[in-house]
Amino acid sequence: MFILDLLFPKFCLGCGYIGVYLCPSCLKKLEPVKQDVCLYCKKPSLLGLTHVNCGNKLNVDGMITIYRYNPMLKIIIKNIKYRLAVQVWNDFYKMISPEVISKLDCYKNLPSDLVIQPIPLSKNKFNERGFNQASFIGTFFQKFLHFPIVNLLTRNTEVPAQAQIKNKKGRYLNTKGIFTATQGVNPNVILVDDIITSGSTVKEAAKILKRAGAKKVYVLALAMG
């Protein structure tokens, strides 16, 4: 490892500081989410639960996000996705404070049969990258939640990033039909993703899981865009 550090020294992604991919100063630029919101109306909600008036039987039941998707976190996630995946993530998760993670405690009061389902990539995209960033994040959350990680969803195709599509209808159509559920879906599922913007991807995943037998589907994401 020492030789690798000499040959390929780490530089802070934010400021260029030598030795780590995220220095303490740049870490302070991250903005923890202090008030969770309903995924559908974006208004404040206790524990991120979907408001009664916003929900139906196929909707996501609640959503918790850890950070705001600000410029610093955008750099980190971009590097996790496209460049130094494992190395950046290993440095980053070690620096997330226990206070930030403590909001996950609410999941411990939910049914014990919960499982963690990372949002999957298509086969072609997975082969291209060699990893799924949502799986990295799911494994990290599992250290605190201790629920099993499962593979209940298949992604049928890869579509343009939601952030590239500006209107609500376009984002909905972009994700329609992209997932298929396997047989024997667990009754209570936590969907894990890196960023929630409009939420169209997790909404589609929740709909497919519920049609396959899930009773409750919650969302847990690293960032809210």
Name a few traits of the molecule.
225 residues, alpha/beta, Rossmann fold, two-stranded antiparallel ribbon
Characterise this structure.
The chain is an alpha/beta fold and 225 residues long. The protein has one domain (32-224): Rossmann fold (3-Layer(aba) Sandwich). Helices cover 34% and strands 16% of the residues. It has helices at residues 2-7, 24-27, 71-82, 85-94, 98-101, 123-129, 133-145, 168-175, 200-211; strands spanning 62-68, 115-118, 153-155, 179-181, 188-196, 216-224. A 4-stranded parallel β-sheet has the order 1-6-5-2, sandwiched between helices. Helix 9 links the parallel strand 5 and strand 6. Helix 3 packs across helix 4. The longest helix is centred in the middle third of the chain and has 13 residues, at 133-145. The radius of gyration is 18 Å and the shape is globular.
Set out the fold topology.
Blueprint: H1 2-7, H2 24-27, E1 62-68, H3 71-82, H4 85-94, H5 98-101, E2 115-118, H6 123-129, H7 133-145, E3 153-155, H8 168-175, E4 179-181, E5 188-196, H9 200-211, E6 216-224
Parallel strand pairs: 1-6, 2-5, 5-6
Antiparallel strand pairs: 3-4
Helix pairs in contact: 3-4
Mean pLDDT: 85
- Terminal residue distance: 35 Å
- Total helices: the number is 9
Tell me the overall shape.
Answer: globular
Q: Which CATH C-level class is it?
A: Alpha Beta
Largest sheet: 4 strands, parallel
Q: Percent range for helical residues?
A: 25-40%
Order of strands side by side in the largest beta sheet?
1-6-5-2
Roughly how many Å is the radius of gyration?
A: 18 Å
